[in-house]
Request: fold
Amino acid sequence: MKGGIVFGSLLIVVALVPMILGYREFRTQRESEGWPSVLGQIVSSNVQSESIGTTGGVRWRYEVDYVYLVNGVEYSAKWSNTSSTRQHAVETVQSQYPEGRPARSTMLYKR
Reply:
């Protein structure tokens, strides 16, 4: 009986953690909807590999550098993702952000 209570409690905790993290992401997303956006431009976009430990594994990532103007001041920023071990998957996403392409959705800033 005691083991069942412990197991049930553990299941509740395991279920609550993703819900709490999801809510935090949702709240951040909602807050940023009110932020003004500006049109920027992608200045570079590339795919890189990096070694994973001593096993010889490789992790792929893409980086997108962009610039944008706010009140006449130029800002630069970088957006990257390092979560894939599949080169083709990373290249597919990265190809959506070619150099020179205007980009609005990633150019958010808080007043």
Q: What stands out?
A: The CA atoms of residues 60 and 86 lie 7 Å apart. The first strand starts at residue 40 and ends at 52.
